[in-house]
Amino acid sequence: VVFAGELAHTRRAEVEQALPPHLQGNFFSVDLESVRGALLGLPWVRKVELRKVWPARLEVSVEEHRPVARWGEGRGELVNSYGEVFAATPSDAELAVLPLLYGPAGTAPEVLRRYGEFIGDFAPLGARPVQVTLSPRLAWQLKLENGMRVDIGREQPKSPLAARLQRFIDFYPEAIAKRATLPAVVDLRYPNGFAMRVAGEAKGK
User: Fold this and answer.
1) Which partner for 69 in 79, 123, 170, 191 could form a disulfide, CB atoms 3.0-4.6 Å apart?
2) How many beta carbons lie within 10 A of that of residue 43, not counting itself?
3) DSSP label of 41
4) pLDDT tens readout for residues 10-26
5) pTM of the full predicted structure?
């Protein structure tokens, strides 16, 4: 068995343990689907391509998951660059930089897509989302790197989400960034404005 390319997360010891029971028979009779299934059972493996090379070699090409975010509440799940959820254990260095995404089952691609949009929205402000949550009622909430929580709410026909967020971004440099204390929570669910709350203070518009 020869692997094409290096693997970042999958260890050779894992492969050597998984493959032997599935390498039965000879060049003609070995069950490639059985081999593929064994490799796909490893945590970091997303896709496997196999090719027989005469007289006795099997070339294996493995595409690993590339983690771009953590998913959910402590279940050890990650989101890859395709928006697919998988279970694996990243290194401490990877874990430290991965954002945290939440959402109902099946919404990971949408949450990841929105996260990418939010990154672009906040980039001009020098702020960065580190957590994005989509509630069961399809309301959006962000947590920024500076600790601020931004409640965006649901998509509304008369007050689109993008318009509410853009209003906040437009006012941010003057209304928020120059404050002595940044608000702990900003609520963008109002059709004609937004509310801010500083930790320890009563909520106010």
Assistant:
1) 79
2) 15
3) T
4) 988 888 888 878 888 78
5) 0.86
